[in-house]
Specification:
2 helices, little secondary structure
Length: 110
């Protein structure tokens, strides 16, 4: 079990300092996820919320991070920014996925 990586009284902006515990579902506890970035001895660190539901294998995501020159276009990894598909880096260091409540219903096609 980890403590929040900062004390809320150290937040400089008054509005955030006074409202952080009402922000999102978990307030300042959301920042505990930042500890994943300290796991430098591991090739991959996965951060999942408690309400996550993994529906497909994550192998392609791990392979894209670990393997050199991984063919991301030939994998099952969805690419949401189709306009920049030719500018993908050879080495992928991190992936960001959206929670279901962050998706723009009707605005994005998945």
């Amino acid at each position: 079990i980890r403590n929040t990586p900062f004390d809320s009284k150290d937040i400089q902006k008054e509005f955030l300092r006074e409202n952080i515990d009402g922000a999102s579902c978990c307030g300042r506890k959301e920042f505990i996820k930042l500890y994943a970035y300290t796991l430098a001895d591991h090739p991959v660190a996965v951060v999942l919320d408690l309400d996550s539901l993994v529906l497909k294998p994550l192998d392609d995501l791990f392979d894209a991070i670990i393997l050199e020159d991984y063919d991301i276009l030939g994998s099952s990894i969805p690419i949401h920014d189709k306009k920049n598909v030719n500018n993908l880096p050879k080495k992928i260091d991190a992936f960001y996925t959206k929670d279901y409540n962050m998706v723009n219903a009707g605005g994005e096609k998945y």
